[in-house]
Design goal:
Radius of gyration: 27 Å
Number of helices: 7
Structural class: mainly alpha
Strand order of the largest sheet: 1-3-2
Oligomer: single chain
Strand content: 5-15%
Bound molecules: zinc ion
Helix content: 55-70%
């Protein structure tokens, strides 16, 4: 009986078989990496162009009123101002700012009193949205406190105030940063008029807070 072309069931694969299989595997990894890189570049370009060009069809730009910044509704709290001055002193002495410090300094306010914000410094007080989960609350409070330090000229070599505040807080509360991002995305999705608006505005916020350009 003559053997025709092609593999036979009981044939032992020769060295040639392994060479072919291994070469295939070796080629798969660079292709996967190249593919992922291509998708990543495409997504960044899409978000970047979209956030520059896209406009909501019937968008009346909402004017946000932050009640927390209105002194008639949120008058200065002497106790909080004293705590913040204490923390400025602590920072000047190079001492660590603790969670207890932040708890004493921050004022929790309902989200509708500070639309579109997680936290803000107004009239020398630190307001944090009560929407935020616990770890995010500390991260945001630390971020806002860093802005207070900046106002006191304590972040002298910083080139980008927003970025410096973000990284100062992220350094101490890395998990809080992640929770803040997920919580902010959920909130942005809730208030966005469309999916496109959500995607592009989130991209803008991401660039503004986390990237140095
Ligand atoms: Zn900020």
């Amino acid at each position: 009986m003559s053997r025709g072309p092609g593999p036979f069931l009981f044939d032992i694969p020769g060295p040639n078989f392994y060479t072919v299989t291994m070469t295939k595997k070796k080629r798969l990894l660079p292709r996967f990496l190249l593919g992922s890189l291509f998708i990543l570049v495409f997504m960044i370009l899409f978000l970047e162009l979209g956030s520059r060009l896209y406009r909501e069809p019937d968008q009346n730009f909402p004017t946000f009123e932050w009640a927390v910044c209105d002194l008639d509704r949120y008058p200065q709290d002497e106790g909080k101002l004293v705590v913040i001055q204490e923390l400025v002193g602590k920072k000047a002495r190079g001492e660590k700012i603790t969670r207890e410090d932040l708890d004493r300094a921050l004022i929790s306010a309902p989200q509708d009193q500070m639309p579109n914000l997680n936290g803000v410094v107004c009239n020398q007080m630190i307001f944090i949205s009560s929407r935020l989960p616990e770890s995010a609350r500390y991260y945001v409070a630390r971020h806002e406190l860093e802005h207070v330090f900046q106002q006191h000229g304590m972040d002298g070599d910083c080139q980008d105030w927003e970025l410096c505040a973000t990284w100062a807080a992220a350094w101490e509360f890395p998990l809080g940063l992640l929770r803040t991002i997920t919580s902010s995305l959920r909130e942005a999705y809730r208030i966005s008029p469309s999916l496109w608006s959500f995607l592009f505005s989130s991209w803008r916020v991401f660039k503004f807070t986390l990237l140095p350009w």
